[in-house]
Every structure is written in structure tokens, then in C-alpha cells.
Amino acid sequence: MHDKSDALPGDFFAIPDIHVIRMHGRDAIAFAQAQFMNDVAGLATGEWQWNGWLTPKGRVVALFALLRVDDGTLRLLLLDADPTGFIAGLQRFVFRSKVTLTPETDVTVAGAFATPATARGALAAVDAEGATEFDVGGTADPRTLRVGGGPATIDPVAHGRWRALDLAHGLPRLEPSQLEQWTPQQLSLDRLRAFSVRKGCYPGQEIVARTHFLGQVKRGLARLHTGATVVSGGDEVTATSGGGRIVCSQGAEALAVLPLDPAPAGLQVGGATAEVLPLLDGLAR
């Protein structure tokens, strides 16, 4: 197996770990507003945001991009999590709400290292083929995420580079062992404008808001370069003072939750030195 991507700049390749879920019905917006951690009601038609679902104790169950298609339809681009389990969990809270949750198993999710044709920032766009494109890049590293359209090339190297850029921008990619472990503040999801402390109630809202308004955020996300050391979510990060744990990794890129003040020094993972790199900006929506 070679380690060079076959994709040319602008070529679309499959993103198999993003799953699309459609929420539709008269109460879709209200239901999402009551369950998810960001302000869904504040989205205009055609806009999207980073969002998530929390436990009552304020721990992240799932992260996703959420698009308001119209007044009765949302599309969720679920990162990493099992869509069947996610839908089953949400279904327990539907009660009499007029909303259906359906996995869109027949759509292709693809990415390209190129500026979107039309989509910009939080505004998605539908292209000539009926596919929806999202702008998920920064100034120095443009990226287009496309939902729908034709088949996409299977390119593990390009897909790995995509995930590494997610981590570089501070977008955690949570494997199962890291679900229900972290609060939004510990994952520094404020950098992505992914949660609200001022909208109405949602699961975990009390803990999220109290942590914010009382200034109790003691730990946050750090980007690490691990060199040749292979690390996984949950691995311990040691330091001369303090320390933390790895949240996720892709190649030499890793995200860890570490103390914020003072920042720990002399970091090691698995007995090897880890270098702290700056988190990139560009994914806030």
C-alpha cells in the first residue's frame, strides 16, 4: 500500500465517517433547539453551524454540522458516531413532537482540497447537480465538503489528511471510547461557536452555562505533534507539572485536554516528547 494520495487538488474523495441524518416535520426546529447545544432557531435557511448533543451531565455524546434546509427540515452531518444509535437515542425524546429522523444512506459524502464553488462560511449552497456543498476550510487550506452528487474516489491517504486538518483546526473526531467523557468547554468548542450559553434549556445546559459564567474552565484543547509515536484516545499525557489525556489522533496530529493556566511544560506521550502546536483558525461558523 502506498502512502501517496491519488487525488489531484479539487478532486473529490469519499469521507466515509460522516453520516447524514434528515430531521423533518412541523416541530423539527423546536425539537432540535430543545435537544442540541447550539442555537438552532438562530439559523437562517441555508445556514449551518457546528453543534452537538450532550448528556444531562454536560458530556458530549456526538458532534455534527447542522444545516437548516427550510422551516421544517434540518440535515445533520454526524461525525464518527453510529447514526442508528444516535437516532435511537434521540427518538426516546420525540414523544408527541411532529418530527421524523431518517438516515440518508443513499447519499455520498465527499471532500476536496479546494475552495467551494459557491458556499462561503456558514452559508451552504446547492450546486448544478443538486449536491449540497459546505465551506470547511481556512484561508491557507481551502476545503469543500459535498453531500450528494456522483460517486467519490476511495483515497485513504487524502481522507487521513482531511482528518488531520480537522484536528489542526480544533475539531475533535471522537472515537467510541471518548464519547460522554468531555464537556464542550474542555474540548474548546467555543472556538468553533459550537454551543450556546444563552439559549433556552437543553440536556447539559445548566452545567455548560454555570461553568461559563462562573469562570470555572480549567482545562481546554491543545494540539500536539507526536512524531513517530502512535497515540490513541484516552492515552495519558504527562508533564513536569499537570498533565492530561489524548482525545483523538490522526498520524502525527493529536488533540489533548490539558490545563489552561499555567500551560503544562515538558509534555510526553508514551515516553516520547510531544510538541505543542498552535490551533488553526478558520472553522468557526
TrEMBL record:
InterPro entries per the UniProt record, alphabetical: TrmE/GcvT-like, YgfZ/GCV_T_CS, YgfZ/GcvT
Name recorded for this polypeptide: Folate-binding protein YgfZ
GO biological process, one term: iron-sulfur cluster assembly
Leader peptide range in chain numbering: none
Keyword annotations of the record: Transit peptide
